[in-house]
Fold this sequence. Notes:
The structure holds two protein chains of two kinds.
Chain A: E1 3-9, E2 18-24, H1 33-46, E3 69-70, E4 73-74, E5 96-100, E6 109-111, E7 114-115, H2 118-125, H3 147-157, H4 164-168, H5 175-186, H6 189-192, H7 195-208, H8 219-223, H9 231-245
Parallel strand pairs in A: 1-5
Antiparallel strand pairs in A: 1-2, 3-4, 3-5, 6-7
Chain B: H1 8-34, H2 40-52, H3 54-83, H4 100-103, H5 105-129, E1 137-140, E2 143-146, H6 148-155, H7 159-187, H8 192-223
Antiparallel strand pairs in B: 1-2
Helix pairs in contact in B: 1-3, 1-7, 1-8, 5-7, 7-8
Amino acid sequence: xxxxxxxxxxxxxxxxxxxxxxKVNDISPDTSFLEMMDVMxxxxxxxxxxxxxxxxxxxxxICGMCSLFVxxxxxxxxxxITTCQLHMRKFKDGETITIEPWRAAAFPVxxxxxxxxxxxxxxxxxxxxxSVNTGGVPDANAIPIGKAEADEAMDAATxxxxxxxxxxxxxxxxxxxxxxxxxxxxxxxxxxxxAKRRAKNMLAKMDEMGFGSCSNTGACEVECPxxxxxxxxxxxxxxxIKAKFND
Amino acid sequence: xxxxxxxxxxxxxxxxxxxxxLIVFLLVHLGINLLMLVSADAYNAGxxxxxxxxxxxxxEPLLALGFVIHILYATILTLQNQKARPENYSTVNQSESSTxxxxxxxxxxxxxxxxxxxHIINFYWKIKVLGGHDIPSVIVxxxxxxxxxxxxxxxxxxxxxDVIYVIGAIFLGLHLSHAFWSAxxxxxxxxxxxxxxxxxxxxxxxxxxxxxxxIIPIYFLITG
Lengths: 247, 224
Protein backbone atom coordinates (compact mmCIF):
# COMPACT_ATOMS: atom_id res chain seq x y z
CA UNK A 1 0.00 0.00 0.00
CA UNK A 2 1.15 3.52 -0.80
CA UNK A 3 -0.16 6.16 1.56
CA UNK A 4 -0.02 9.91 2.14
CA UNK A 5 0.07 10.90 5.80
CA UNK A 6 -1.11 14.29 6.97
CA UNK A 7 0.57 14.53 10.37
CA UNK A 8 0.29 17.23 13.06
CA UNK A 9 3.75 18.62 13.89
CA UNK A 10 4.29 20.84 16.92
CA UNK A 11 7.76 21.50 18.42
CA UNK A 12 6.56 21.92 22.02
CA UNK A 13 3.59 22.86 24.18
CA UNK A 14 3.82 26.58 23.42
CA UNK A 15 4.85 26.44 19.73
CA UNK A 16 2.27 26.83 16.98
CA UNK A 17 1.66 23.53 15.23
CA UNK A 18 0.81 22.69 11.62
CA UNK A 19 0.17 19.71 9.36
CA UNK A 20 3.00 18.16 7.31
CA UNK A 21 2.52 15.62 4.53
CA UNK A 22 4.69 12.51 4.34
CA LYS A 23 4.54 9.59 1.91
CA VAL A 24 5.04 5.95 2.88
CA ASN A 25 5.26 3.22 0.23
CA ASP A 26 5.05 -0.57 0.09
CA ILE A 27 3.16 -0.97 3.37
CA SER A 28 1.65 -4.44 3.91
CA PRO A 29 -2.08 -4.47 4.82
CA ASP A 30 -1.08 -6.69 7.78
CA THR A 31 1.12 -3.94 9.25
CA SER A 32 -0.18 -2.37 12.43
CA PHE A 33 -0.80 1.37 12.39
CA LEU A 34 2.09 2.08 14.76
CA GLU A 35 4.47 -0.11 12.71
CA MET A 36 3.47 1.99 9.70
CA MET A 37 4.32 5.09 11.78
CA ASP A 38 7.72 3.48 12.59
CA VAL A 39 8.37 3.04 8.85
CA MET A 40 7.45 6.70 8.31
CA UNK A 41 9.89 7.76 11.06
CA UNK A 42 12.70 5.55 9.63
CA UNK A 43 12.21 7.36 6.30
CA UNK A 44 12.26 10.76 8.02
CA UNK A 45 15.51 9.90 9.88
CA UNK A 46 17.13 8.88 6.57
CA UNK A 47 16.03 12.18 5.05
CA UNK A 48 17.50 14.08 7.99
CA UNK A 49 14.06 15.20 9.22
CA UNK A 50 13.21 14.92 12.92
CA UNK A 51 10.95 11.88 13.46
CA UNK A 52 7.35 12.34 14.61
CA UNK A 53 6.85 11.92 18.38
CA UNK A 54 3.90 9.72 19.37
CA UNK A 55 2.98 7.79 22.53
CA UNK A 56 3.13 3.98 22.61
CA UNK A 57 4.24 1.27 24.99
CA UNK A 58 2.91 -2.31 25.17
CA UNK A 59 1.53 -2.41 21.61
CA UNK A 60 -0.95 -5.09 22.61
CA UNK A 61 -3.89 -2.93 23.66
CA ILE A 62 -3.57 -3.08 27.44
CA CYS A 63 -1.38 -0.22 28.61
CA GLY A 64 -3.40 2.77 27.41
CA MET A 65 -0.38 4.74 26.17
CA CYS A 66 -1.13 4.97 22.44
CA SER A 67 -3.55 7.64 21.34
CA LEU A 68 -3.95 9.35 17.91
CA PHE A 69 -7.04 10.81 16.27
CA VAL A 70 -7.00 9.04 12.90
CA UNK A 71 -9.28 10.25 10.07
CA UNK A 72 -11.56 12.01 12.56
CA UNK A 73 -11.90 9.13 15.02
CA UNK A 74 -10.16 8.29 18.31
CA UNK A 75 -7.98 5.17 17.80
CA UNK A 76 -8.96 5.20 14.11
CA UNK A 77 -11.63 3.50 12.01
CA UNK A 78 -12.22 0.28 13.95
CA UNK A 79 -14.23 -0.60 17.05
CA UNK A 80 -13.09 -1.76 20.50
CA ILE A 81 -9.37 -1.40 19.80
CA THR A 82 -6.47 0.91 20.62
CA THR A 83 -4.37 2.48 17.84
CA CYS A 84 -1.69 -0.19 18.25
CA GLN A 85 -4.28 -2.85 17.38
CA LEU A 86 -5.44 -0.97 14.29
CA HIS A 87 -4.22 -2.54 11.07
CA MET A 88 -3.59 -1.02 7.65
CA ARG A 89 -6.17 -3.34 6.02
CA LYS A 90 -8.73 -0.87 7.42
CA PHE A 91 -7.43 1.71 4.90
CA LYS A 92 -7.43 1.91 1.10
CA ASP A 93 -4.34 1.94 -1.11
CA GLY A 94 -3.47 5.51 -2.09
CA GLU A 95 -5.49 6.99 0.80
CA THR A 96 -4.55 10.21 2.59
CA ILE A 97 -4.68 9.60 6.35
CA THR A 98 -5.05 12.54 8.76
CA ILE A 99 -3.32 11.98 12.11
CA GLU A 100 -3.92 14.45 14.96
CA PRO A 101 -3.23 14.47 18.70
CA TRP A 102 -6.06 14.22 21.27
CA ARG A 103 -7.56 17.71 21.49
CA ALA A 104 -8.64 18.98 24.91
CA ALA A 105 -7.72 21.91 27.15
CA ALA A 106 -6.93 19.36 29.88
CA PHE A 107 -4.62 17.37 27.53
CA PRO A 108 -2.00 19.89 26.34
CA VAL A 109 0.25 18.79 23.47
CA UNK A 110 3.78 17.95 24.65
CA UNK A 111 5.23 17.45 21.17
CA UNK A 112 3.74 16.47 17.80
CA UNK A 113 1.17 13.76 18.58
CA UNK A 114 2.02 13.31 22.27
CA UNK A 115 -0.33 14.85 24.82
CA UNK A 116 -0.01 15.22 28.57
CA UNK A 117 -2.65 13.04 30.23
CA UNK A 118 -1.52 13.79 33.80
CA UNK A 119 -4.98 15.30 34.41
CA UNK A 120 -6.28 11.70 34.63
CA UNK A 121 -3.70 10.89 37.34
CA UNK A 122 -4.78 13.96 39.30
CA UNK A 123 -8.43 12.84 39.14
CA UNK A 124 -7.41 9.38 40.41
CA UNK A 125 -5.39 10.95 43.22
CA UNK A 126 -8.53 12.83 44.27
CA UNK A 127 -10.43 9.64 45.09
CA UNK A 128 -9.79 6.68 42.77
CA UNK A 129 -8.52 4.42 45.54
CA UNK A 130 -9.54 2.55 48.69
CA SER A 131 -7.84 3.53 51.96
CA VAL A 132 -8.66 0.34 53.88
CA ASN A 133 -6.07 -2.40 53.95
CA THR A 134 -7.70 -5.17 51.93
CA GLY A 135 -5.01 -7.73 52.74
CA GLY A 136 -3.99 -10.54 50.43
CA VAL A 137 -6.08 -12.18 47.72
CA PRO A 138 -9.29 -13.37 49.43
CA ASP A 139 -10.70 -16.87 49.02
CA ALA A 140 -13.12 -17.33 46.16
CA ASN A 141 -16.70 -16.50 47.22
CA ALA A 142 -15.44 -15.00 50.51
CA ILE A 143 -16.45 -11.49 49.48
CA PRO A 144 -20.21 -10.97 49.96
CA ILE A 145 -20.95 -9.77 46.43
CA GLY A 146 -23.06 -11.23 43.63
CA LYS A 147 -21.71 -12.40 40.29
CA ALA A 148 -23.53 -9.65 38.37
CA GLU A 149 -21.99 -6.89 40.55
CA ALA A 150 -18.55 -8.49 40.38
CA ASP A 151 -18.80 -8.67 36.58
CA GLU A 152 -19.93 -5.07 36.29
CA ALA A 153 -17.10 -3.89 38.56
CA MET A 154 -14.66 -5.87 36.41
CA ASP A 155 -16.11 -4.34 33.22
CA ALA A 156 -15.49 -0.87 34.69
CA ALA A 157 -12.00 -1.89 35.81
CA THR A 158 -11.00 -2.70 32.22
CA UNK A 159 -10.60 1.06 31.60
CA UNK A 160 -6.97 1.64 30.58
CA UNK A 161 -7.14 5.44 30.91
CA UNK A 162 -6.12 6.11 27.30
CA UNK A 163 -8.28 9.23 27.00
CA UNK A 164 -10.20 8.24 23.85
CA UNK A 165 -13.45 9.23 25.63
CA UNK A 166 -12.16 12.76 26.16
CA UNK A 167 -10.71 12.94 22.64
CA UNK A 168 -13.95 11.92 20.93
CA UNK A 169 -16.38 13.81 23.19
CA UNK A 170 -17.59 17.06 21.63
CA UNK A 171 -17.24 18.62 25.11
CA UNK A 172 -13.86 16.99 25.91
CA UNK A 173 -15.59 15.49 28.94
CA UNK A 174 -13.86 12.87 31.08
CA UNK A 175 -17.13 11.48 32.41
CA UNK A 176 -16.66 7.97 31.00
CA UNK A 177 -13.19 7.66 32.51
CA UNK A 178 -14.19 9.06 35.92
CA UNK A 179 -17.43 7.07 36.00
CA UNK A 180 -15.55 3.82 35.26
CA UNK A 181 -13.24 4.47 38.22
CA UNK A 182 -16.13 5.47 40.50
CA UNK A 183 -18.25 2.51 39.39
CA UNK A 184 -15.49 -0.04 39.77
CA UNK A 185 -15.07 0.86 43.45
CA UNK A 186 -18.69 1.75 44.26
CA UNK A 187 -19.83 -1.76 43.31
CA UNK A 188 -17.42 -3.51 45.71
CA UNK A 189 -17.71 -3.63 49.53
CA UNK A 190 -14.14 -2.33 49.93
CA UNK A 191 -15.03 0.82 48.02
CA UNK A 192 -18.34 1.59 49.72
CA UNK A 193 -16.78 3.30 52.77
CA UNK A 194 -15.43 6.22 50.75
CA ALA A 195 -18.11 6.15 48.02
CA LYS A 196 -19.62 9.56 48.83
CA ARG A 197 -16.33 11.37 49.27
CA ARG A 198 -14.97 9.71 46.13
CA ALA A 199 -17.80 10.80 43.83
CA LYS A 200 -17.62 14.41 45.04
CA ASN A 201 -13.84 14.75 45.04
CA MET A 202 -13.27 13.10 41.67
CA LEU A 203 -15.95 15.25 40.01
CA ALA A 204 -14.55 18.42 41.60
CA LYS A 205 -11.10 17.53 40.27
CA MET A 206 -12.48 16.71 36.81
CA ASP A 207 -14.20 20.12 36.63
CA GLU A 208 -11.08 21.85 37.97
CA MET A 209 -8.85 20.25 35.31
CA GLY A 210 -10.95 21.86 32.57
CA PHE A 211 -12.86 18.88 31.16
CA GLY A 212 -16.37 19.59 29.82
CA SER A 213 -19.66 18.16 31.06
CA CYS A 214 -21.57 15.15 29.69
CA SER A 215 -24.14 15.69 26.89
CA ASN A 216 -24.98 11.95 26.80
CA THR A 217 -24.17 11.69 23.08
CA GLY A 218 -22.68 8.24 23.69
CA ALA A 219 -19.68 8.82 21.39
CA CYS A 220 -17.24 7.90 24.20
CA GLU A 221 -18.78 4.47 24.64
CA VAL A 222 -18.43 3.71 20.90
CA GLU A 223 -14.80 4.86 20.68
CA CYS A 224 -13.70 3.34 24.02
CA PRO A 225 -11.26 0.50 23.21
CA UNK A 226 -12.64 -1.43 26.17
CA UNK A 227 -16.33 -0.78 25.45
CA UNK A 228 -17.00 0.87 28.84
CA UNK A 229 -20.78 1.42 29.07
CA UNK A 230 -22.66 4.69 29.59
CA UNK A 231 -24.42 2.87 32.43
CA UNK A 232 -21.36 3.73 34.52
CA UNK A 233 -21.98 7.45 33.88
CA UNK A 234 -25.56 6.97 35.14
CA UNK A 235 -24.18 5.31 38.27
CA UNK A 236 -21.67 8.13 38.76
CA UNK A 237 -24.50 10.72 38.43
CA UNK A 238 -26.50 8.71 40.97
CA UNK A 239 -23.53 8.43 43.38
CA UNK A 240 -22.82 12.15 43.14
CA ILE A 241 -26.44 13.30 43.58
CA LYS A 242 -26.87 10.88 46.52
CA ALA A 243 -23.67 12.11 48.16
CA LYS A 244 -24.68 15.75 47.77
CA PHE A 245 -28.16 15.20 49.19
CA ASN A 246 -26.62 13.48 52.22
CA ASP A 247 -24.32 16.43 52.95
CA UNK B 1 -26.07 20.17 49.24
CA UNK B 2 -24.48 23.65 49.19
CA UNK B 3 -22.32 23.45 46.09
CA UNK B 4 -24.27 20.87 44.06
CA UNK B 5 -25.26 23.30 41.30
CA UNK B 6 -21.76 24.64 40.77
CA UNK B 7 -20.50 21.15 39.82
CA UNK B 8 -20.90 19.99 36.21
CA UNK B 9 -23.29 17.16 37.17
CA UNK B 10 -25.31 19.68 39.25
CA UNK B 11 -25.75 21.98 36.24
CA UNK B 12 -26.77 18.99 34.13
CA UNK B 13 -29.25 18.11 36.88
CA UNK B 14 -30.90 21.51 36.42
CA UNK B 15 -31.11 20.85 32.65
CA UNK B 16 -32.64 17.45 33.33
CA UNK B 17 -35.28 18.55 35.86
CA UNK B 18 -36.33 21.67 33.92
CA UNK B 19 -36.38 19.56 30.73
CA UNK B 20 -38.62 16.90 32.29
CA UNK B 21 -40.95 19.66 33.51
CA LEU B 22 -41.19 20.98 29.93
CA ILE B 23 -41.71 17.41 28.66
CA VAL B 24 -44.78 17.09 30.92
CA PHE B 25 -46.02 20.54 29.83
CA LEU B 26 -45.84 19.50 26.15
CA LEU B 27 -48.16 16.55 26.86
CA VAL B 28 -50.75 18.86 28.48
CA HIS B 29 -50.42 21.37 25.63
CA LEU B 30 -50.86 18.64 23.01
CA GLY B 31 -53.87 17.21 24.85
CA ILE B 32 -55.69 20.56 24.62
CA ASN B 33 -54.62 21.08 20.97
CA LEU B 34 -55.98 17.73 19.86
CA LEU B 35 -59.45 18.84 21.05
CA MET B 36 -59.49 20.90 17.82
CA LEU B 37 -59.86 17.64 15.91
CA VAL B 38 -62.90 16.78 18.06
CA SER B 39 -64.89 20.01 17.69
CA ALA B 40 -64.57 23.79 17.93
CA ASP B 41 -66.67 23.77 21.13
CA ALA B 42 -64.50 21.12 22.78
CA TYR B 43 -61.33 23.09 22.01
CA ASN B 44 -62.82 26.41 23.14
CA ALA B 45 -63.95 24.81 26.42
CA GLY B 46 -60.44 23.34 26.88
CA UNK B 47 -58.73 26.67 26.17
CA UNK B 48 -61.18 28.46 28.49
CA UNK B 49 -60.39 25.98 31.27
CA UNK B 50 -56.64 26.55 30.80
CA UNK B 51 -57.14 30.31 30.91
CA UNK B 52 -59.33 30.41 34.00
CA UNK B 53 -58.32 27.47 36.22
CA UNK B 54 -56.41 28.76 39.31
CA UNK B 55 -53.96 25.81 39.33
CA UNK B 56 -53.01 26.57 35.71
CA UNK B 57 -52.61 30.25 36.61
CA UNK B 58 -50.03 29.27 39.24
CA UNK B 59 -48.26 27.00 36.75
CA GLU B 60 -47.97 29.74 34.11
CA PRO B 61 -45.10 31.74 35.70
CA LEU B 62 -43.46 28.46 36.77
CA LEU B 63 -43.54 27.33 33.15
CA ALA B 64 -41.93 30.58 32.00
CA LEU B 65 -39.28 30.10 34.71
CA GLY B 66 -38.73 26.52 33.51
CA PHE B 67 -37.99 27.79 30.00
CA VAL B 68 -35.68 30.57 31.25
CA ILE B 69 -33.68 28.22 33.51
CA HIS B 70 -33.41 25.56 30.77
CA ILE B 71 -32.11 28.11 28.24
CA LEU B 72 -29.83 29.87 30.74
CA TYR B 73 -28.10 26.70 31.90
CA ALA B 74 -27.86 25.36 28.34
CA THR B 75 -25.96 28.52 27.47
CA ILE B 76 -23.68 28.31 30.54
CA LEU B 77 -22.88 24.63 29.84
CA THR B 78 -22.34 25.17 26.10
CA LEU B 79 -19.87 28.01 26.74
CA GLN B 80 -18.00 25.92 29.35
CA ASN B 81 -17.89 22.92 27.04
CA GLN B 82 -16.48 24.99 24.19
CA LYS B 83 -13.70 26.17 26.50
CA ALA B 84 -12.78 22.53 27.17
CA ARG B 85 -11.57 22.22 23.54
CA PRO B 86 -9.74 25.41 22.55
CA GLU B 87 -8.27 23.90 19.36
CA ASN B 88 -10.59 21.89 17.11
CA TYR B 89 -9.76 18.85 15.02
CA SER B 90 -9.23 19.41 11.30
CA THR B 91 -11.09 16.18 10.51
CA VAL B 92 -13.96 14.91 12.64
CA ASN B 93 -16.03 11.85 11.82
CA GLN B 94 -18.65 11.81 14.56
CA SER B 95 -21.50 10.25 12.61
CA GLU B 96 -20.02 6.82 13.37
CA SER B 97 -20.35 7.27 17.11
CA SER B 98 -23.29 9.56 17.90
CA THR B 99 -26.49 10.99 16.44
CA UNK B 100 -26.72 14.48 14.92
CA UNK B 101 -29.43 15.74 17.34
CA UNK B 102 -27.41 14.58 20.37
CA UNK B 103 -24.46 16.72 19.25
CA UNK B 104 -26.58 19.72 18.31
CA UNK B 105 -29.02 20.11 21.18
CA UNK B 106 -28.12 23.77 21.68
CA UNK B 107 -28.65 24.59 17.98
CA UNK B 108 -31.95 22.67 17.95
CA UNK B 109 -32.95 24.40 21.19
CA UNK B 110 -32.27 27.76 19.53
CA UNK B 111 -34.45 26.79 16.55
CA UNK B 112 -37.25 25.66 18.88
CA UNK B 113 -36.92 28.99 20.75
CA UNK B 114 -37.23 30.91 17.45
CA UNK B 115 -40.41 28.98 16.71
CA UNK B 116 -41.63 29.60 20.27
CA UNK B 117 -41.27 33.38 19.81
CA UNK B 118 -43.39 33.23 16.61
CA HIS B 119 -45.88 30.99 18.40
CA ILE B 120 -46.22 33.34 21.38
CA ILE B 121 -46.76 36.35 19.06
CA ASN B 122 -49.43 34.38 17.16
CA PHE B 123 -51.53 33.32 20.15
CA TYR B 124 -50.43 34.14 23.70
CA TRP B 125 -49.70 37.78 22.85
CA LYS B 126 -53.07 38.33 21.18
CA ILE B 127 -55.12 36.65 23.92
CA LYS B 128 -53.24 37.50 27.12
CA VAL B 129 -51.28 40.67 26.48
CA LEU B 130 -53.62 42.49 24.08
CA GLY B 131 -56.58 41.15 26.09
CA GLY B 132 -58.24 39.40 23.17
CA HIS B 133 -60.52 42.32 22.30
CA ASP B 134 -60.41 41.46 18.57
CA ILE B 135 -61.41 37.86 19.23
CA PRO B 136 -65.16 37.12 18.93
CA SER B 137 -67.00 35.38 21.77
CA VAL B 138 -68.85 32.07 21.71
CA ILE B 139 -71.16 30.44 24.23
CA VAL B 140 -70.31 26.84 25.13
CA UNK B 141 -72.61 25.10 27.65
CA UNK B 142 -73.97 28.46 28.73
CA UNK B 143 -70.54 30.02 29.42
CA UNK B 144 -69.31 32.95 27.35
CA UNK B 145 -65.67 32.66 26.28
CA UNK B 146 -63.15 33.67 23.61
CA UNK B 147 -63.50 31.84 20.30
CA UNK B 148 -59.85 30.72 20.28
CA UNK B 149 -60.72 28.12 17.66
CA UNK B 150 -61.54 31.00 15.31
CA UNK B 151 -58.08 32.49 16.05
CA UNK B 152 -56.29 29.21 15.25
CA UNK B 153 -58.35 28.50 12.13
CA UNK B 154 -57.73 32.06 10.93
CA UNK B 155 -53.96 31.72 11.29
CA UNK B 156 -53.76 28.31 9.63
CA UNK B 157 -55.62 29.63 6.57
CA UNK B 158 -52.23 30.98 5.49
CA UNK B 159 -50.20 28.08 4.11
CA UNK B 160 -46.87 29.58 5.22
CA UNK B 161 -47.98 29.46 8.85
CA ASP B 162 -48.87 25.79 8.36
CA VAL B 163 -45.36 25.20 7.02
CA ILE B 164 -43.75 27.13 9.93
CA TYR B 165 -45.72 25.11 12.49
CA VAL B 166 -44.87 21.76 10.87
CA ILE B 167 -41.18 22.70 10.75
CA GLY B 168 -41.39 23.81 14.40
CA ALA B 169 -42.79 20.38 15.30
CA ILE B 170 -39.93 18.68 13.44
CA PHE B 171 -37.26 20.74 15.29
CA LEU B 172 -39.00 19.97 18.58
CA GLY B 173 -39.10 16.27 17.71
CA LEU B 174 -35.37 16.20 16.90
CA HIS B 175 -34.62 17.96 20.21
CA LEU B 176 -36.81 15.50 22.13
CA SER B 177 -35.33 12.45 20.36
CA HIS B 178 -32.20 12.96 22.48
CA ALA B 179 -33.75 14.86 25.41
CA PHE B 180 -35.99 12.17 26.87
CA TRP B 181 -33.44 9.44 27.62
CA SER B 182 -30.73 11.98 28.34
CA ALA B 183 -32.81 13.54 31.15
CA UNK B 184 -33.13 10.17 32.90
CA UNK B 185 -29.45 9.34 32.33
CA UNK B 186 -28.42 12.63 34.00
CA UNK B 187 -30.67 11.86 36.98
CA UNK B 188 -28.86 8.53 37.26
CA UNK B 189 -32.10 6.66 36.55
CA UNK B 190 -30.69 4.51 33.78
CA UNK B 191 -28.73 1.29 33.57
CA UNK B 192 -28.01 -1.34 30.91
CA UNK B 193 -31.59 -2.71 31.05
CA UNK B 194 -33.49 0.56 31.50
CA UNK B 195 -31.49 2.35 28.85
CA UNK B 196 -33.20 0.34 26.09
CA UNK B 197 -36.63 0.78 27.68
CA UNK B 198 -36.15 4.53 28.15
CA UNK B 199 -35.03 4.79 24.53
CA UNK B 200 -38.22 3.09 23.34
CA UNK B 201 -40.46 5.21 25.61
CA UNK B 202 -38.55 8.31 24.47
CA UNK B 203 -39.08 7.45 20.79
CA UNK B 204 -42.81 6.88 21.35
CA UNK B 205 -43.07 10.19 23.23
CA UNK B 206 -41.09 12.03 20.52
CA UNK B 207 -43.24 10.75 17.65
CA UNK B 208 -46.42 11.44 19.65
CA UNK B 209 -45.41 15.07 20.27
CA UNK B 210 -43.96 15.80 16.81
CA UNK B 211 -46.78 14.17 14.82
CA UNK B 212 -49.42 15.36 17.28
CA UNK B 213 -48.44 19.01 16.94
CA UNK B 214 -47.83 18.78 13.17
CA ILE B 215 -51.21 17.16 12.51
CA ILE B 216 -53.17 20.32 13.48
CA PRO B 217 -51.81 22.74 10.83
CA ILE B 218 -51.98 19.86 8.30
CA TYR B 219 -55.64 19.27 9.27
CA PHE B 220 -56.49 22.96 8.72
CA LEU B 221 -54.52 22.99 5.45
CA ILE B 222 -56.48 20.00 4.09
CA THR B 223 -59.93 21.03 5.36
CA GLY B 224 -59.21 24.65 4.34
